[in-house]
Amino acid sequence: MVRKTVHCSRIIAAGLCVAMFAVMLPPCAVAQETIVGAGGVNAFSGRRAFLHLEAICDIGPRPTGSAGMLRQKKMLIEYFRGQGAQVEEQPFQIRDRRSGKSLQAANVIIQWHPDRLQRVLLGAHFDTRPFPDRDPVDPKGVFVGANDGGSGVALLMELGKGVQLLPGPLGVDFILFDAEEYVFTTRDPYCLGSRWFARQYVDRPPAHQYRMGVVVDMVADKNLELWQEQNGLSWPDTRPIVDSIWKTASQMNVREFIPRPKWTIEDDHLPLRNVAKIPTCDIIDFDYPHWHTTQDIPENCSGESLEIVGKVLLKWLQSIE
Q1: How many H-runs (helices) and E-runs (strands) does the chain carry?
Q2: What is the pLDDT of residues 188-206, one digit of tens each?
Q3: Contact criterion met (CB below 8 Å) for 278 and 240
Q4: Full-model pTM
Q5: Is residue 145 left, alpha or beta, with left meaning phi > 0 and alpha meaning psi from -120 to 50?
Q6: CA gap 62, 181 in Å, rounded
Q7: What are phi and psi of 31, to 5 degrees?
Q8: How far, in Å, are 63, 233, 286, 302 from residue 54 at the CA level?
Q9: Distance of CA 146 to the CA centre of its chain
Q10: Which ranges in 83-221 belong to alpha helices (H)?
Q11: Domains of the chain
């Protein structure tokens, strides 16, 4: 088997064998739409999620420590607090690999029903790669990361509408990880935000406990194909999570969730599972042709794909006992 590093999060191809808030969407526009059922899957709108995605990309590039990242973070904190969530930052510092200087970063922790001590973690990275280094024409050009960096955030923004209506006993946290791919060379480390979060979870245990976690990444491809990630299948504590999510998709007649492995991926789910000991799997479409190029833009993404993933996750959350 040939193993080759190909993903910003050090994804290893294993083969088949294995803009502020008002710009984004006026509150009145959201309020006027009918949400069907208490946390039902119809609470998730791909149209609204795609508007979130466009607003995020309108900010421009959002690498760690940049003005774009700071603007995005402010917008997201205001948005989720406006939706009724409890929101806090988790600051940490990294080293800029070019200058050696310290750089400020911060994860964002969004809690729904914070009084519930048994919780589920849903995570996504919200930084963008500094440059579109795989672009054949302009590898130092502008990278807005619509799918890689924007899609997971947009999905969680819309998912909150259903999650806040979920009955007990489980609470849900959204974690936005910073510095997932603040990299300039192949030797630079990845997943720094999730590593920090995992370490803090171990060293300073909160009152609550995460029963399980799911990371979403690159979930807006127009030609959506969600194969099962190999790590999640091979770990005995995460295999049931993978099976239950893909089973939920099957029950909903969603063919985009393909119940077979294709990629072995080193993403934010690894520190969560291996360091924090939170059983966590990864939902990712790595067959995206515009990965790490200037063409990772909203025009190459789909609200329908966001809706497919969002509705499956919402239905799955409802099924957890």
Answers
A1: 10, 11
A2: 999 999 999 999 999 999 9
A3: no
A4: 0.89
A5: left
A6: 11
A7: -65, -30
A8: 17, 33, 21, 11
A9: 12
A10: 151-163, 192-203
A11: 4-319 (3.40.630.10)
